[in-house]
Structure formats: structure tokens, C-alpha cells
Design goal:
single chain, alpha+beta, Nuclear Transport Factor 2, Chain: A, 6-stranded mixed β-sheet, 4 helices, 6 strands, elongated, NTF2-like_dom_sf, Cyclase_SnoaL-like, Ester cyclase
Length: 136
């Protein structure tokens, strides 16, 4: 198996596991200098990233994470995904709507020696969840 394929498989599994509440691969794959550049909720370091993910898991009942596509190389990883569930707790400053939602996102990691040193990530959480709360 090529290095690129190993990176792709490992990082993809990390995302799937994380949205099931298993952060073990995050602690293995993320570098101590890891930074998440996310316009919605940036995270500086592994602890802040895990806290952000846990807040999402806690706020969304029946959360489902699906991979649309992923790619890997020796120095990068990318993934496009869909997250769905029911918004039952406050998250991103938005009160729970109790309604089902579906958001899409993309994340691009910079990889060094098999570890992520940073990610550019964006998903349309606020737009979708805000629209749900405004429908009432």
C-alpha cells in the first residue's frame, strides 16, 4: 500500500471514529502543534478540537457522518462529508430547534511525517441550523 493510500485510510477512519465519540486516532494523528483554521470555530491544539467535536456530538441526536470522498498524499489529506441528525442542544450559539438537519463540509489537512499539523475546514452548520430555528 502506498503512503498516500495509508494517509487517506487512516485520516478517513479518524473522521468516522470522531463522530462516533472515539477520539483515539485524533490523538495519534494530530501533531502537538496542530491548528484548526475553521471560520466558525477555530481550534488551537488537540484538546480544543476534541472539545469542539464533543459539543457537536452532544448537540446532535442520532448524528450520522458520511464520507462523500477523500484523498491522501504524503503531504496532505482532503475529505468531503455530510453530517445529519436532530438539533437537540445549543451549539455554535444557536438554541436547539428539535428538527432534523443535514450539513455538508470539506476539510483539507497539511500532513508532515504522517501527522496533521493543520486543517482548513468549513461546513454550513450555522446557515442550516439558523434556518431551522427561523422556521418556527
Amino acid at each position: 500500500m502506498s503512503t498516500a493510500e495509508r494517509v487517506r485510510q487512516r485520516f478517513t477512519q479518524m473522521y468516522v471514529d470522531a463522530y462516533r465519540g472515539n477520539f483515539e486516532l485524533i490523538t495519534e494523528i494530530m501533531s502537538p502543534v496542530f491548528v484548526c483554521r475553521n471560520p466558525l470555530n477555530p481550534a488551537d491544539g488537540i484538546e480544543e478540537l476534541v472539545a469542539m467535536l464533543q459539543a457537536q456530538i452532544d448537540a446532535f441526536e442520532d448524528i450520522d457522518f458520511k464520507v462523500r470522498w477523500s484523498f491522501g498524499s504524503e503531504d496532505g489529506f482532503g475529505i468531503a462529508y455530510v453530517i445529519s441528525g436532530r438539533h437537540v442542544r445549543e451549539v455554535f450559539g444557536l438554541k436547539p430547534s428539535g428538527k432534523r438537519f443535514e450539513v455538508t463540509g470539506v476539510s483539507i489537512h497539511e500532513v508532515q511525517d504522517g501527522h496533521s499539523i493543520g486543517v482548513y475546514s468549513s461546513a454550513n452548520f450555522v446557515e442550516v441550523l439558523k434556518a431551522l430555528t427561523e422556521m418556527d
